[in-house]
Structure formats: C-alpha cells, structure tokens
Amino acid sequence: MKRVKSKITAEEYVRRSGGSVSSSRFVKGQIYAMGEQGVDIGVAAAGVLARSEARTERTAAAVPKAHPPVQPVGRLADAPINNMGQTVVAELEAVDLVMFGGVVKQVMVRGRSEGECAIIDWVNFSVLEDTWFRTARETLIGDEQIVTEASRQLEKIFGFGVTAHREKGLNFFRDSWVLGDDMGFVCFGGQRQKMGVTLNGLGCANAAAGWEKRLFDFLASTAVQPQISRIDLAHDDFTGAYLSVDWAEEQWKQGGFTARTGGLPPEIQRVGNWHRPSGKGRTLTIGRRTSGKFLRFYEKGRKEGDKNSLWCRAEFEFKSSDRVIPFDVLLHPSDYFCDGYPCIAQFAKTETPKRIKLKVETAHIVVEACEENLKGSYGKHLRAFRNMYGDKETLDRLCHPDLNAWPKRMKPLGASLDTIPVPMHRQVKPYGPSYFNLPSHGLHGA
Fold first, then answer.
1. 341 and 408 in a common domain
2. How many CA atoms lie less than 13 Å away from 173 in the CB half-sphere?
3. 344-377: b (≥16 Cβ within 10 Å) or e
4. 242 and 258, same domain (yes or no)
5. Does residue 258 contact residue 340 with C-beta atoms inside 8 Å?
6. Which of these three, 349, 368, 402, is where a domain ends?
7. Is 361 found in the same domain as 344?
8. Phi, psi values for residue 163, rounded to 5°
9. Which of 20, 147, 210, 331 is deepest in the core (most CB within 10 A)?
10. pLDDT tens profile 148-193
C-alpha cells in the first residue's frame, strides 16, 4: 500500500489557509494527498487538537501489518481557523487516521489504566489461508487440510483446536467448524482465501492462561494479512457499589458519553422493564450496534437468574467497520476500555474480578436458578416418582442417557480444558485411497 506523508505542519496550514476557502482547499488537498491510496493524516482540516503524545504512544507492533504505520497527532500551538474564518477554541480529540481498503478509518486510541479494570470477552480475527501454508511449511490442498493445520496452531494458542464440522455456513463464509467445546468457530470458504476465527465469551474464559499474549505474537509475527474485526471488553461490579444501569443513564444525561469535541451525544436505548422491573434484568445501550463502538450496561446477575442480584456489567463492543483495532488491545484491554468514553475513565483505578471469580459467581446464580425452575416445573412429578420407585430408580429412569450431557444453560459451568473433545488434527482418520481426500469445494477454499 502506497504511503504519502504530509510535509505541511499544522502552523503552516493555519498560516496559508488564512480563512480563505480556495487556499484552504488547496492546502487540504496537499495534506490529505487526494488521489493517493495511502495517507498519513497528521492534522484534520476541521481543526483537530491532539492530546499529549504520551497519551497516544503505541508501539510499531500495535498496528496490524496490513495497515500503514500511523503517526500520533501533534498539539497545535494555536487554535486553527476554519473555512468560515472563525477561530475554534474548543478542546478537541486526538485522531489517528489511516486509509484502509479505500476508506478512512480511525485507529483506536489507548489511554492509561492503573489497574486491570477490563477483560476480553469476545474476539473475532481473520487471516489469509497462506498463514497455514507458512506454519505447515508446505502447500496444503483442500479445505480439510487447511482447517486441520489451523486446528493445530489454534490449540497452541488457546489450548483447544477445531473439534467438529458444522456443515453449514456462518458469518458470510461458506463453511464453518466448532472451536473447542462450543467455545467459538472457525469459518472458511468463499471469502477470497480468508479464514475467520471467533472466540466467544466461553472460549475467552476457558482458554489456557496467557492466550492473549500468544494470540498477539501470532498475529504480529506469523499470520498473513491479519485483522481483528471485533473485540469485546468487559468490566464487572458484583455488588453494584458504583456501577448500575441507572448510573449509566444519569451519566448520559450529564454528557458523560459526549465526545470532548462536542456535538450530539450518542444514541441511547433502554431494554427491559424499566418502569416496573420484573427481576429479569435491564439493559442500557450507548451508540448504535452497527457502528464501530457500542457500549452496553446490563444487570448480568439478574439475567443469569438471580432476581435480587446487584451484579452489573459494562461491556464495549469494538468493530472494524469504521476503525482499526490494533493488536495491542490484546495486551492492554484496560487501557482501551477506559478511553472509550469520558465517564468511563473513572474506572481506571478499579479492578475487575478475575475470571475464576466470575465463573464461581455465575455458577452460584445459575445453579440456584435451575433448581428453582426444576422445582416449579417438575417438582411434583419428581416427588411422585420418588415415592413410587425410590431415589435410585427414579434417577435412572429420568436422567439423560448421555453421561456427558449438560443443559445448555449450565454448560459454561462444566466447561474446561479437560472436557473438550479431541481436536480434528489429533483424530485418527479411517484408511482410504489418497484420491478420497481430494477437496470437495475447490482448491484453497476458493
């Protein structure tokens, strides 16, 4: 990708534009390198003021290889003059922009957090199929060989690989496979030799410790044209001591979610029974789900089944639709979480519960809720069968024949690296002539 760096400083732009529309357009054209495919936009012509360079520092490895390097925006000595000849005096945000795929996108800004106030709860990324040729050190033929090699490498990163074929498409890919024990998906085919990998919340919670660093290293140094397309960052308050959906709504009213540049606040929506809470949990969303930054506050404990729980979660969903997600977010999720909105910055000194504590808290709520549901729905039946057959025969008659069966709602409680099915790269395949293994959908997932 061709890269053009502006040689005109902010002060020079202000001096030469002088409030004149014609000269302003001329200088803008030079700064934005109109007609070129790659751009370093050091200064936005509308008058973008930067934060300090220390706040926006990032390593070269933090920007994906598929994206051109990005320079932090410098602070202007004087307020710029807009096209109407008016001086802009408001403090504006720092903006790092790149031209990516013909579209100008903002690079996520990293703030500073003093504690681990956020965890990763979801991540989607994609790589070219050439990635697996590189790791296998040979040219792979057919979807099965490629997915098998992907399974081998993903097991090194997460502790689990690809375990089953779903035999249907997903996320605009032609075909898909299960990652671990329903801990995510691998999607392949029909997307220009790309492979998409999804690690869901269950996968993030049960992946082998240190998976974030291993995934960072893989994307930064091994993968071919890697890109993070979505990442969710979550913060939990079990006791409701400082976080609630009502607090979030009040912050919105006070401008806590309004950018420092001013303008209209993001959209807000209330989901659930807010006027007469039923105990099923309420949700407050900030922004649009289709945009690159979407924030939700919800009463997680009540959604899990405890009608009296004060457990509240704040969860950012970042997508690459209008921004570049740097790999650095895998190593420093709290820094990016705190920089999401002005009012979120106050969580910088707050610790979010560790994953093991989250699993224990969830287990208590879910087990109690399932017991209540079972009593309410089938308690009388169980009592009658117990009197008729006794405890053992009742259990033998009514329990599922599959010894490993778990209700979907309780599955996260029993999930661990020890319960995951054998990944496909470790499965023994039946013997057959080599021509039986020819690709069924063309070469290389095309």
1. no
2. 23
3. bbebbebebbeeeebbebbeebbeebeeeeeeee
4. yes
5. no
6. 349
7. no
8. -115, -25
9. 147
10. 999 999 999 999 999 999 999 999 999 999 999 999 999 999 998 9
